[in-house]
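FAQ: What does the model actually see?

It sees only this:
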Amino acid sequence: MKSKEKNIKFSLEKIKVITNIVIIILLIILILQRSGIFNNTFTIGKIGKNKLNNGELIITEDGQVAQTVNASNWDTSKVNIVADADGKNVPVPKGYVGSSVAGENKVNDGYVIYEGDSAVTSSNVSVARTSRNQWVWIPVEHPDRIYEEVDGVKKSKLYLYGISGRAEYKNENYEPAIVPESDTQTNLTNGGLSGMTPDKLHQELQQEFDSTIESIKRYGGFYIGRYETGNLSQSKPAVIKLNRDINNQTWYTMYSKMKYLSANENVKTNMIWGCLWDEVIIWFIERRSLSYPEAVDNSSIWGNYLDSTFSYTRPSGNSDTKPANSGVLIPTGGSNYTKKQNIFDLSGNVWELTLEGDGISGRTRRGGNSQNLSSNRPVSTRGSNTLPTDLRENLGTRAYLYIK
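And it is asked to produce this:
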């Protein structure tokens, strides 16, 4: 009898061990599937319950160690250290204020800053949105997924997206770079870049990229224009709600005007880099406000495309409806339908030109436009064959801002 009980006990112990082994194997398979090993892609880990930008070591749910950002290292002659509604520190540049309006005052929701020193509250936010430049804070936990160094020179990392992850994209012309067949002395001068030469442009882009990376590493992120860049036909552009002057300028003209978006010497502004566009997409995904299929298959549920329909506001304040199967260009920020984490129109409306090169003659545009089907030109898409001298009704750009 004792021998029988002993055998049963031994069998139960064996079953328990085997069960534990099976569980471990299943967990390993699940981890490998999430990492993209089985489909030649990889998935960036989701953010865990950790505070950002408070000088803490941040660890993501997949075990990746994020950069340590210590607010005590921030230059307080250039920024104010402001706590958002969740208590997370944000580096708000001098000459700007963080919004105190619910829905705009949390990093996780898209923390919004406004140009100027006057407080933005629920009583004046409607006016502020249409009159003051606005930027949304993008925290960056892993700068090394944005750039790499080759022979001591920094260059961007770019990505292609699939329905379950993303993989590094080997562009023929890395950022930062000129596109030699187009960036001629004549084109630069005619485009509003007086005194610029191809070599100077290359050097300027490299310096800007290097400074951007160093700023991201120091302050833990960058700011993206809340809206598509407006007032493009004027001498000074704007990032404000309900602006319609968001297209029909060459890459050179837009590039030459981006610096005028800076409020002061504490910050610099420019046309967005392709790698920063990719970082915004992955931030959406990490925040669980966007899935990979929505980034690569169907962006119509939050963007202005041919096949989307939604209500929007005209500059006059009157409401209208954008019908399906109609390519209507709306004023930027005209509808909450096209908003994600407080950023408007990243998906559809106008193509947004970037600093990313495309071969030896073109610049890359992102995000599709109002005349595209969302399945053909989702937010993650790259448009090619765009010369920097091209003028198109469906071409605009988006700015970014970094702390110097």
